[in-house]
Amino acid sequence: MTSVPTWRAHPVRAELLRGSAPWAGAAVLVVLAVPLILTAHEWQGGWAQTQALLRSVLTQLAAPLAVAAGCWQGQREHRRGTRELLRSAPRTRLARTLTAALPTAIWTSGAALAASAGALLACWPYTSAGGPVFSAVFADAGTVGALSLFGHVAGAVLRWRLTAPVLALCTPFAELLPVMSLWPIPDRPLSPAPATPMLQTSIPVWWQPLATIVWVGGLGAAAILLYAARRRVYGLLPLAAALVAATVLVQGSEHAWRPDPLALRLACDDTVRPEICVSGAHPGMLPEVRKALSGLTARLEGVENTHVRLVDIHQRMMQAHVTTQGGTHIPERDPDVLTMRSVALVGQDVIRGRLTDPEQFAWDTAQSLTGEAIWCEARRKDMEVHRIDRAVTEFLAPNPAGAAGQDWSGLGSPSARDGGEPGDREALAAVLDRLRAMGDEERRRWLSEYFASARGCESTRVPAL
Amino acid sequence: MTGTGARVMGLTVTHRRAIALDSVDLDFGTGVHGLLGPNGAGKTSLIRVLATVAAPAGGRVELLGQDMTAHRERSRVRRRLGYLPQEFGFYPGFTVREFVAYVAWLKEMPACSVADAVERAVERVGLMDRIDAKVKTLSGGMVRRVGIAQAIVNEPDLLLLDEPTTGLDPEQRVDFRALLREVGTACAVIVSTHLAEDVAAACEQVTLMESGRVAFRGTTAELRELGEATPHDAPDGTVSPIERGYTAALRLHRASSWDPGTAPDTGSGSGSKAGR
Asked: Which stretches of sequence are listed as region Disordered (chain A) (predicted)?
């Protein structure tokens, strides 16, 4: 007789290596990998975006697959005709069920963890601050495993061959049940379905993932025990734990998430004027933004009356969210602070730690600087003043959509949009030429005077050009 | 566990309102017992009750000296039971070693003894060279041998085999009968089969069943004698004495069932012999 280690003879090893469990794990890995790879540019570089997407694909794609895999495994005894043999054995149904069901749960949740780890690793090189919320990753993977246990019990009870695909199709809707309009709690604390906005702006407090695991895992354990335990009353224990966790989640829903402290901070460069401040969650973007705005800040050197600081709008919104306790109103304006486009919008303005269009970013920032004047109705009606506002914007950062005087559509030119004078383009180009033709000192003085007027609507205060 | 074999008293089994076993009294001691009978005779119903997978509608079942009504005793007996169902289900992705080990685990064998017990069982059925092959790669006969290996992995005190030779080729059948004889020296083996030659070659005792009742009980030699004593119209050599005995016993049982005056003492306990 050859000596085989005891652990090799244990059926859990065979169940883990054979049958449908490894295939289920591979399938989960594939269905997670495909959307993650296809949308990599939308999340690489942002922990929040990565985790929000992970939650979305885990609950919408991996969970239904795990339910179907569990169901398929649960139907195995019936499909393979082994019930007769199993029923003649003394090993309890609970032990048999756990041995058959846990490998699928382990493989599917393991695949979910592996995909999550891969995504977080792929995200990491492009991030500069913070880190993932690991407890949320484990809670989501645990949810996938727990749902496979539900599937197993359903498969063991329902012998219909199409039970697995039907359950897979129903799972996303079942996950959304707690968030439908009849559900009285708006923050969907009991639903594993995506809470993308929540994950993008907030992080869970320590007990939230723990309570979620107990809630979903408790239900899964209760299903297994109520189905397989000799004393089914034991199933009430995990059920009670799940209900307690659910109560904690519902009662504490207002305090289960907190704003990401990093996103509330600012990472500033005060070596330039105006100072440039990006979200504290993306301090690594500061050199990129400074480079994009280098032309603008160079042209504003020595100019007075400009804003002191350009601040990432995402940070300002987050700050507003905190100060208004959940509201989204912009807080009272700081006259020295001007908001600019956010570098936290990974996948839009920023892809893998790079601005997608630095020229557009600079032009948008220039628009913000002159924006109050441009959108002021009184100044818009005065074509000459409005032309000056637009010329200053173009001077600070050229419109990437076209050369000056050739394409002003991006500026929202009233002449083009509102049917203004046909000669407006030429007039605007002439104003811009005059501004460019000024000596440096003269232009600084003029711009200082202009920015003194740019915060108001009085067109009479705009210096002539 | 002190008792041996199996004993049923007044056993009645119903299947979809039809009576599969009609108040049968039987006992099986150490040795190989053949369970013969035509399709629908109640052989599988009896085996399933003895395997504790089907509950009787009436009567009493004692296995290895234990009454089967209590859960604790039932579990104790199941540890000492070997069972090959008529429809042997298996997990095709498992290797032979893994599947037999799985059944050993089901039978709550001590973990430290499983590995050796598995190899011993697989060796006894002649599959040692395929022990690490997946079951799905095996031929039908080999799968049947896997079924036998799983049934004997715990060296049972009561071995129940339902149509075990189905799918085996003649050589494998010969080997299997030798295995049965070897196992039967130490425990009670009950073999349900429709092949009289299996019984002739491997069994010491034979129970012939028909329509849920016992048509004949006795030794294999007695059944053979009955066959030899019965006139037949088949050419010599085409029908074996044991097959003639099988046919004769069935005919006698049927005749007695129709004529209450000559009814044999069937279904009333061990030792009954058709027509006597």
From this structure: 399-423
